[in-house]
Amino acid sequence: MFNDEYWMRKAVQESLKAFEEGEVPVGAVIIKGNKIIAKASNQVEKLGDPTAHAEMIAITQACENLGDWRLDKCSLYVTKEPCIMCAGAIRNARIQNVYFSIRDEKEGACGSRFDLLRDEKLGFFANVRSGLLEDDVRDIFSQFFKNLRKRKTLS
After folding, report:
1. CA-CA distance, 12 to 48, in Å (whole number)?
2. Which of 6, 58, 115, 148 could form a Cys-Cys staple with 2, CB 3.0–4.6 A?
């Protein structure tokens, strides 16, 4: 039986793809019935698209794979707390469970700055858990931004 840490490691693998391409290292996987139905990494820079977050791409893939926009029996594993845009898409897709590694105190919409997935006034309630593989993911982010600062200094 697979556990949450196993699935988060799959999201971390996706985040490393983003890291290697110079994207903010966010990776996401969507699971249904112990099977990955979508996986993605950030592609904002590559596609020149501000909506090309890992979560958004994974949601689109999952809907295509299932042939339905409702992902109500699915779980999303993502390395960084979803933003408002992604949390809105998660709500609209009715993803049941959201697991993330690191919080985003500035823009996080799953409990840090906002809490869109657990706001009862909005009519939908998702299970949210943070901190999975937090140290590993924090190290990846730290290295990414260290490299970014170094590149900017050399420019």
Report:
1. 23
2. 6
- Contact of 76 with 38, CB cutoff 8 Å: no
> Is there a contact between 8 and 101 (Cβ–Cβ < 8 Å)?
yes
Is the separation of the CB atoms in 77 and 97 below 8 Å? no
Which pLDDT tens digit goes with each residue over 127-155?
999 999 999 999 999 999 999 888 777 76
H or E stretch covering 108:
none
Strand order in the sheet with 35-41: 35-41, 27-32, 75-80, 97-102, 127-130
Q: Distance between CA 114 and CA 91 in Å, rounded?
A: 14
Active site residues: 55
Confidence (pTM): 0.94
Question: What's the rounded Cα separation, in Å, for the pair 103 and 117?
Answer: 14
Model confidence pLDDT, tens digit, residues 64-123 = 999 999 999 999 999 999 999 999 999 999 999 999 999 999 999 999 999 999 988 887
Which stretches of the chain are DSSP H helices? 4-20, 44-47, 54-66, 84-93, 134-154
